[in-house]
Amino acid sequence: MTLPPTLVPVSSTTRVIACATDEIGEVAADVVASVAPDGVLGVATGSSPLALYAALIRRRAEGLRTEGLRLFALDEYVGLRTDDPRSYAAYVRSVIAEPLGIPVENVRVPHGSTDTDGAAYERLIADAGGVDVQIVGIGRNGHIGFNEPGSDAETRTRVVALDESTRRANAEHFDDDLTQVPTHALTQGVATILSARRIVLVAAGSAKAAALRAALTCPVTADNPASFLQRHPDVTVVADHDALREDR
Ligand code: F6R
To answer: Residue 247 and residue 41: Cα distance in Å, rounded?
Structure first.
């Protein structure tokens, strides 16, 4: 699909692939599969990349070698145990690592409640040689990872307070009870994410349209942390038509 002029990315290093909602997984997997058989894959949680992980799992059944991948998650709630089914550690294990045959020792998820824990996670990423392909989703407020509006380009893995809108968006995983949704998270920073050699952003649905359009076409600003992706040399956006609507 040719993008309308209002949606053409400002950055020449950002490629936008518009597709049907049910094609997002396969299209994104075409990019992400380049990390196999033993690269370092940065993984987002949430609903946006589910079809992408399902596509990778199908490709493994057809012969793609994924067992040697090393995974680094973007973020984790503060205060949840790693065996809590609502934790991102549990998501990464059950949705990505186990079905792709990746052993636990190759899976890293931020954990802890201090910036020292964040610094330790940065060292793990550096020791692995950095991230080859980073998958990100986008929040309705333009967050990437849990870098909420106001997060600047220099940020590294650290503890952040979650926006109320983010907590509301994620309340469905906590019995729709906002009081159960953690207030803080440990997240890779904007600079951490931009250190990846390649970034794939997946987005579906009209709820993401305003944030995505601003990220792609407006000047870079900490008010929309996804806009910092404009500064990265190799970004692929895979989005459905609703997420690329001009009128939202
Ligand atoms: C998840 C993450 C978040 C989500 C974003 C979109 O690890 O870092 O930035 O990608 O909140 O979430 P979904 O895909 O559930 O709409």
So the answer is: 34
Query: How far is residue 66's CA from residue 100's CA, in Å, rounded to a whole number?
Result: 6
This prediction's pTM: 0.98
Determine the average pLDDT of the residues in 99-114. Answer: 98
Most informative mutation of 24, 52, 138 for ligand 1 (most atoms within 8 A of CB): 138
Nearest CA to ligand 1 atom 11: 139
Mapping DSSP onto H, E and C, the string for 46-75 reads CCCCHHHHHHHHHHHHCCCCCCCCEEEECE
Question: Is residue 5 situated within a structural domain?
Answer: no
CA-nearest residue, atom 12 of ligand 1: 46
- Which DSSP string do the residues of 205-248 spell out, in sequence order? SGGGHHHHHHHHHSPP-TTSGGGGGGGSS-EEEEEETTTT-TT-
The DSSP H or E segment spanning 40 is: strand 40-43
Q: Which of 111, 122, 132, 143 is catalytic?
A: 143
> Are residues 189 and 147 in contact, defined by beta-carbon separation less than 8 angstroms?
yes
Least confident range from 7-11, 162-166, 224-228: namely: 7-11
Dist. CA 118–CA 123, nearest whole Å: 9
- Pick from 222, 201, 213, 215: nearest CA to 153: 222
Q: The domain that contains 205 carries what CATH number?
A: 3.40.50.1360
Cα separation, 6 vs 25, whole angstroms: 25
Residue 60 falls inside a structural domain: yes
